Every structure is written in C-alpha cells, then in structure tokens.
From TrEMBL:
Protein name: Prefoldin subunit 1
Domain of life of the organism encoding this protein: Eukaryota
InterPro entries, per database record: PFD_beta-like (IPR002777), Prefoldin (IPR009053)
Claim: Manganese is one of the keywords in the record: no
CDD domains assigned to the protein according to its UniProt record, in alphabetical order: Prefoldin_1
The UniProt record lists the keyword Ligase: no
One Pfam family recorded for the sequence: Prefoldin_2
Keywords: Chaperone
Family in the record: Belongs to the prefoldin subunit beta family.
PANTHER family documented for this protein: PREFOLDIN SUBUNIT 1, PREFOLDIN SUBUNIT 1-RELATED
Gene it is expressed from: LOC104747246
Species per Swiss-Prot/TrEMBL record: Camelina sativa (False flax)
C-alpha cells in the first residue's frame, strides 16, 4: 500500500515537474521575443532621431508602406520600447516564480527518494 502511495506521489511530482519545465521554456521564449522587439524599437529610434522633422518617413503595414510624420513614427517606437520593457519585467517575475517552484518540486522529489530508497529502484525498473 505504501508502495502505491509513493508511486502515486512520484507520478504527481513528475507531472508537475514536466508542467513547470514547459512553462519555464515558454516564458524564456517570450522574454527572448520581447528582447528582440525592444532592440528593434531602440535601433529604429536611433535611426529616426537624427533625421530632420520634414523628412518623409514611411511605416510598413504588411506589404504596403504608408507615409507618416516622423513624430508619429517616433512616438510609436517609443511606446513599443516601453511596452517591451514592461513585458520583460513581468516575464522576469514569472520566470523567477517558476524557478522557485521548480526548485521546490526538485526538493520534494529528493525527499521522497531519501525517505523511500526502494522507490528509486522501482522507478528505474519502470523506465527500462
């Protein structure tokens, strides 16, 4: 009976570990995407700033380019930069939370294996 309870506990810990790992990878990918968006907005702003105000600037919309005043494009890029920075901060918080959760699950698994050394042999026999 205890073996079944330990096996069920292991399966539960394993499932939560798989779920947390997937979420962590997803957050890391989102952070990488937002970093790219932030860099793109920053570089675009760096190119727009030295241009004279009367310069014709164009905004890409799909396959079309639309004439926009420099001030409008600059404001859009500044907003994209701010939004990306805010998203990165939020994602960083989520990443830290998920890392703490992962560490906690690892500790739970370690405790389970220390309490019941026999379960490690059962787990190894199940995976083969």
């Amino acid at each position: 009976m205890a073996d079944e309870a330990n096996r069920a506990a292991f399966m539960e810990i394993q499932a939560s570990m798989i779920e947390l790992t997937g979420k962590l990878k997803q957050v890391q990918n989102q952070m990488r995407n937002k970093e790219g968006d932030k860099k793109r907005a920053f570089l675009t702003l760096e190119e727009l700033r030295p241009l004279p105000e009367d310069t014709n600037t164009y905004k890409s919309i799909g396959r079309t380019f639309v004439l926009e005043p420099k001030a409008v494009l600059q404001a859009e890029q500044e907003q994209k930069l701010k939004d990306s920075e805010a998203a990165i901060v939020s994602l960083q918080t989520s990443k830290e939370y998920l890392e703490k959760q992962t560490a906690e699950v690892e500790n739970n698994l370690r405790e389970l294996l220390q309490q019941e050394p026999g379960i490690a042999r059962q787990i190894m026999s199940m995976s083969m």
